[in-house]
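G.,

No rush on this.
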Amino acid sequence: MTAKQTISLNDIAIAYEDHGEGAPIVLLHGLCGSSQYWDKVIPALSQQYRVIAPDLRGHGQSGVSDQPYPMELLANDISELLEKLHIPQAIVFGHSLGGYVTLAFAEKYPEKLHAFSLIHSSGFPDDEKGKTNRTAAMEGILNQGIEPFIAGLNPKLFAPEHLISMKEIVEDIRQIGLATAPQGAVNVLTGMRERVERNQVIAEAQVPVLLIAGEEDQIIPLKNAFAITGPHITQVKLTDAGHMSMQENPNELTAQILTFAKQVYKA
C-alpha cells in the first residue's frame, strides 16, 4: 500500500499522497475509491508537476465523520488541504464523484483554480430514478455491509471486455472498494443523491476546462459528459476505456492530463 501522509482538517483526518515538485495538480478519486485509483498515472505526472492525491473523507485511509457528506463539504476539505499545504492555486482533476466535488470547489473557490477537469463525470444531478437507487444502496450497505454494494458496482466501472482481460486490475479496484468504511459510503451517497446541477459552473468557468469521457463508460453516458461546450472547454473521448481510464488506459489519460497541464501552465 502506498505510504500516505495525514493532516487534521477541522473535524476529520485526511490522508493524501504528495509526489513531485513544481506547479500543483490535484487528483480526486471516485466513489468507494482512494488515491490508489491514480497509481498508474502519478509516476509520470510527478516527474513534471507536484501531484496531490487525497482520500476523500470516508474513503481510503481518511477519517469518517457521522454527518452526510454534501459535495460542498468535500470541496471544503480540498480547500483546507491546499491551504495547509500552502498551495494558493492548482489544477484539479476529478474522477466521477471527484468530478462532482471539483464542480462544488469551482463554484465556491474559483480563485483557487488555474483550471479544472472532469474525468468520467458530469454536471448533472441525480434524476428521480438515480435518487431512488442511491437510497436503496444506502439501505443495503447499512443492512448488509459494503461487500454486496461493491459486488454490484465494480463490474460497471470497466468496459465489458476488460472484466476478462484486466482481471487483476478489476480485483485490485474491488479490494479498494471493500476497504471503504460503510458509514463513509452511506454519508457520501447521501451527498451525491442531494447534489445540485452544476452544468452552469462548467459553462461559465473563467478558466480552462477539460472534459474526459470513456467510449465504453457504463455509468456516465457521453451525452452527459459532453453536454456543455464552449471556447474554454476541451472534450476528449478515450477509446479502450469505460469508467476507469486511469486503470484501463492510463497512458492515454496521462498524456491528456499532461497536454492540458502544459497548456495551462505554459510549460
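When you get to it, here's the other one too:
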Amino acid sequence: MKGFCTAATLLLTTLTISPLSAAENSINISFLEPQGEQEIDAKALIQSSGVNDIFLELGAEHFQFNKPLELQYGSKDGPLYDPEAHTVHMPYEFVTSSFNYFSKNDYEKNYDRTAQDGTVDILLHTLLHEAAHAYIADQSIPILGKEEDAADNFAAVLMLNYLEEGDTMTISAADLFAFESDDKPDYYQVDEYIGEHSFDLQRYFTTLCLVYGSDPEKHANLLDEVEKDYRMERKDFCVYQFDVINANWHHYFSQ
C-alpha cells in the first residue's frame, strides 16, 4: 500500500481549532498498538490528518456528552458504538479498506480528489455517525425511524454546516457507499432486508440529497444521474428534506 500516508489531507485548514484538554471536552481518544505495516500506516494517516482535532472541536461545540465518550482506534470489530461501554470502536482496517476503495476507483482521476482525501473524509463521517448513536443514547433523543439513517444525517448536517469543505467531504462519504454497493451482487440477501442499515445505494443517494438540499445553486448538477422525469421532483424534495433534518438535529445540538 505504497503512498498510503505520504500526502494526508490536513483538515485543520477547514476549521478554526482551539486547544482542547481532556477536561474541556467530553470525548477521550486512545490508540491500540498497531499490528503490522498496514495498521501502522493507518494510524499514521489518522494522526497526521487532523481528523481527531476536528472531531473533538465539533463535539465540544455541538454535541457534548453527559458521560464522556471513549473513542478507541485499533479495535478488531467495528466501526461501531458499544452502548454498554459508551465507546466508539474504530478498526485500523476500516481506514485501510476505505483507502483501497478510493484507490481502486481511481478517485483522483475520476473525482478530482485523492484517495487520502476520500479516506479522511469517510473517516470523519463515520466517526460522527458512531458519535450520533452515542449522543442519542446519552441525551435520550427519540428516534422515529431507523437510527442508522438518523446517524448518517447527523454526520452530514455537521459536516455541511461547520466545515469549509464539508460538502465535498460529505460527497466522498456518499461515494464510498456507492463503491461498496458496486462490490455486491445484483441481489440482496435476507439479512440485508431485515438489517438496521438502509442499502448502500440508498445511503449514497440520501447523502447526496442532503448535499444538494444544503445549496441547490452550488450543486445544481449533483443529482444528474437521477432519471430526468423524476429529477425535479427529487430536487425539490431534497431542499425540503435538508431543511427539516437540519432544523431537527439543531434542536438537539449544543448552542
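Residues 143 and 150 are 8 Å apart (CA to CA). The mean pLDDT is 86.

Enjoy the weekend,
O.
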